[in-house]
Amino acid sequence: MREVITICVGQCGLQVGLDFWTALAKESSVSVDNGTKLDNSAPEPPMPFFRFDGERTYVPRAILFDLEPGVLSGNKVASSFFNPENVVDGHFFDETLEGETKAAGAGNNWAQGYTKAPHVRNKREESVMDIVQREKDLAEDLDGFIVMHSVAGGTGSGMGSWLIEQLRASYPKHTIQTVSVLPNESDVVTQPYNTTLALRRLIEHADATLVIDNQRIQQLAARRHDEGPRDPKEVHKIANEIITRVMLGWTSPVRFPSTQCASLTELVSTLVVSPRLNLLAPAYAPLNAGRKDNVVTLMKEFWGPHGHLMPNSQLALPGGESSSSDRAVSAVTVLQNCRQTYDEIRMAVRASGPSFAPWTVPMWSVITPTLPAMAKRDGKMTAVTLTCSTGMAGVLDSVRKAFDQMWRRPKGGARGEELITTMDAEELKDIPFMGTYKEALGDAECLEQFRDAYLAVQAAAEEYRQAAFNSYMEDLGAM
Ligand SMILES: Nc1nc2c(ncn2[C@@H]2O[C@H](COP(=O)(O)OP(=O)(O)OP(=O)(O)O)[C@@H](O)[C@H]2O)c(=O)[nH]1
Ligand SMILES: [Mg+2]
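Above: the input record for the complex with magnesium ion. Below: its predicted structure, written as tokens.
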């Protein structure tokens, strides 16, 4: 058995995670009220995600962290379905106060989340990594971790960064996959800083990151409902529904292993051909729930204007349709409830596949897991595709540009790269919104953190850009 532990951090991570687990419980015929089986004739729930505890209860292999009680307090599913020792809502141990206290969030500040994380304790005084290790000890043969978070605020971004570093240091051989939500342009003012600082950890330590673009999802949600911008809570609800569908599809080969694929590690290694190209673009079809589909229409939808959860301008569209030099490096599709033959699937893949980078074997892998009846939902065919696309350079460039807008002296002059690579720590006082970052980290470390993160994001963008060309293979060989 290859088990997977999900770890949700911060408001966004928790809300996405709670929706995912609620849907997973439903598909597995497990009650979110108490973890018992809803239907005794149903097969055993997928044990990579659940563990059997005692006589009647299935417990999610999941851990929920926040630095404030907001999402967790009063949430029925959080309190009834999960192991209470794995649900930590902002209790932390502050040595200077000599006792347990409540952390008041990380205030949209990466540095607050990053520096508070090592002090977090549950009611049994277990640290974050004690909790992870306890959960790991309950697995027979741990496959890896799925971390869910936003990179834009303080907790998911900062505590999430710290957690990913710790996971990588403690479990170097286990797969770390993240579901990382990128912000809307109009979200919090410090988001370009937080996003840059967190992206560095994802680039350096995650095996694979599903990049979820809130802005793009908002556009798709508005289109689906034929309306303009909506209340953020409503947008988040729709976004989380889409992310849940992506994650249910993506994890179905792990939950229902077959000879095609039997673990998260296998899935990730099919897609991530170089550890430096680990940021992946997801797509889901059909987004219009009422439609009848076959494999051809679903595959076409991915590469049409509305299937992808990443902007089309940054995607490797099929042959002649590609507006730019973007190319796919690898792609994996999971088809659920597919009743078509292998030949029909191969033909659809051949007809609608993306443009691949010239140095790769143009391989679009398709997995068709066999689902038990209760996981088939309404029996409609759905498809999730993850693509390693050189267009990710465009996403990283947008993050860098937003950062450059912020990182400047009030009186003009150098900004962005030129400023961050030449300035001294004492000049940080001139940079907008630096106060709380400096307070948490100290001047010298603060500048080092920002500079290293900025350069890491810039280097990753360049890596993706170069991966569109044949010379990339030679560059890889030269490393
Ligand atoms: N898709 C989606 N995005 C969300 C959700 N909740 C918040 N966000 C986005 O997440 C970002 C803010 O991060 P949060 O997760 O709220 O912040 P946090 O990690 O709790 O950090 P602090 O509250 O600052 O300590 C913004 O870009 C929000 O738009 C959600 O449920 N779904
Ligand atoms: Mg929060």
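Notes for the reader.
The pocket of magnesium ion (ligand 2) is lined by residues 10-11, 68, 105, 153, 155 (CB under 6 Å).
The chain has a mean pLDDT of 87.
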